[in-house]
Amino acid sequence: MNFDWTDRPERIDGSEQDREFEKELTQAMVRRPAPPGLKRRILQKRSARRTERHHTTMIWWQRLAASLVAGAVLAGGFGWRQMEERRKGEEAKQQLMTALRITNQVLNNMNRKLVEHDRDDK
Question: CB-based contacts of 31: which residues, under 8 Å, 6+ apart?
Answer without folding.
Answer: 1
